[in-house]
Write a structure and sequence with these properties.
Length: 245
């Protein structure tokens, strides 16, 4: 997983919001919006590969989404199974490594088998890590990590919790994007996003294209990331226009 440009965020996380509203505005069933959202994700993955992003993490299905109408949840599950069969060979060809992050207990055996096969088929790839958070919640992630440490008799330290998180295989996100006009985290990567730069786009997810991604990256590049330090500490001798990525 190569990443040589410090101006490009190494890890981008996205809440892909607005599929249902996109469909409703076109008098289509909500699942049609989710289908269009898959197209947008395909486009975004290719754009991240082209821009040398190292990790892309997307919120595909939250643990709260089970409360949506039954037909929408069923449609989402069918869409996920179908997408696995179609997309995995293409992703593997592009050097993308898949990780599915979330609680698998409530999923069907067919779905779980598809996730395991997709991870195995792309395990050798290193151009981009694509984390698909499915049946995931940030609070679930923290509680699960704490329970694992308690079961092993390990201390509840920050370092131990960090190592037990579901995304411990990648660095924390640098840039957190949410589409659809809402400005909240919605229980996504609560632990991991402590120092992420937040970017909120008014575009609905099916409308989020390469130009929108570049806009978010440009906003990231204009920000100074201090991690508790002062600008003077970070930029001693640097011009006021230089930013720390």
């Amino acid at each position: 997983m190569k990443h040589s440009d410090p101006a490009v965020p190494h890890h981008i996380a996205i809440v892909m919001d607005g599929n249902g509203r996109w469909a409703t505005r076109r008098f289509l069933p909500r699942v049609a919006g989710h289908k269009q959202g898959v197209e947008s994700l395909r486009r975004c993955v290719k754009a991240c590969v082209a821009r040398n992003v190292g990790v892309l993490t997307v919120f595909a299905f939250s643990s709260e989404n089970w409360n949506r109408p039954v037909e929408e949840v069923s449609g989402l599950m069918d869409l996920m199974v179908g997408a696995l069969g179609r997309e995995v060979p293409k992703l593997s060809q592009d050097g993308v490594r898949l990780h599915f992050v979330g609680e698998r207990g409530g999923l069907s055996e067919k779905m779980i088998a598809g996730l395991v096969q997709a991870e195995a088929a792309t395990a050798h790839n290193s151009r981009l890590v694509l984390n698909v958070c499915f049946n995931y919640g940030g609070r679930w992630d923290i509680a699960r990590a704490a329970a694992q440490l308690a079961a092993r008799g390990e201390a509840l330290t920050e370092a131990n919790l960090d190592a037990a998180m579901a995304l411990s295989h990648v660095p924390d996100p640098d840039l957190f994007i949410r589409t659809g006009g809402e400005q909240r985290l919605s229980n996504f990567l609560l632990w991991q996003s402590a120092y992420a730069e937040l970017f909120f786009s008014d575009r609905l997810w099916p409308e989020f294209d390469e130009a929108a991604l570049d806009e978010a990256i440009a906003a990231f590049q204009r920000r100074e990331r201090r991690y508790g330090q002062t600008s003077e500490q970070l930029g001693a001798g640097a011009s006021s226009d230089q930013r720390v990525a």
